[in-house]
Design goal:
five-stranded mixed sheet; three-stranded antiparallel sheet; 15 helices; about 15% strand; elongated
Amino acid sequence: MSTTRFAPRLLAWHTGYGRHDLPWQVNDPYRVWLSEIMLQQTQVTTVIPYYQRFLVRFPTVANLAAATQDDVLAHWSGLGYYSRARNLHAAAQMVMSRFGGVFPQDPLTITELPGVGPSTAAAIAAFSFNVRSPILDGNVKRVLARWAGISGFPGEKAIERQLWQLAGSLLPDNPADMPAYTQAQMDLGATVCTPRKPACLACPVSDDCVARLTGRQLELPTAKPKKKIPERHTVMLLIHDAQGRLLLERRPPNGIWGGLWCLPETPSTLDAVADSQQRLDMTIALEPAGADFVHVFTHFRLTITPQPAVLLAQGNAVHDDDRRWFSREQALAAGIPTPLRKLLSA
């Protein structure tokens, strides 16, 4: 296992087999940063159309900083993990207020931006400023764990620390190689050293890969210990007024779907009428409930019961900034979570 040969082999492989036409492969820290945030826990093919639409609306960090959170969330809607969008907005405002609209070049300083961890900061610095700093996203963890034969779940602090040390020891000597080398690591994990069917014959570092030599490709990296996924249930009220508009509430800024517009929720259909009177200051008549459907989050499964209802009378509680009536078209254009978008689209 040769640490000095690792980077040259990856660079040579990337020249002929790496990805060179991704829309964020430009020398612009704003676009690189945006792509890195969108690519967290999301595949490239999913990100590209969102990335392109987002840049049309927010072509610069100044445009993003000046926008409202509602506007940002509306253009993020459907991409999931909405804390990324809120952090993106806050980070853009920090770049403008603290750094004068200029992205910092030091990875440690970049981590001060909301939502930017060490690996993302290193990627931004490498792609935009040729900084010699290692990355350690999920793809790179898999490549290094297999190549060096490192056992143990990479999410454990000791294993992660070992992987960081290894990643730092493999960097190319020439800073000018950092953009290509960083992309090569990502590409190798995404296209060759994949989780279930690694194409070892196409891998540029397979000749001294410990996992390949010992037949442990599918054992490394060590899987996360399994836990039972919690189950939750909620009833979402589809309350329509006489004009056919739908009542939506803005979620609290933190937590699931933070800051998005969503249907009012109640624990059960039995509580719906009383809850609407007490919390929403309105009287409703329930219609037959829709079929339950499941939305899966990272840490739990949510069973949703759609409960249509008709507005009979309302007080003054609806008329505030966090509770409004939306037409179907207005709702679809707003920042709404994926389950609600599915309901409205159906």
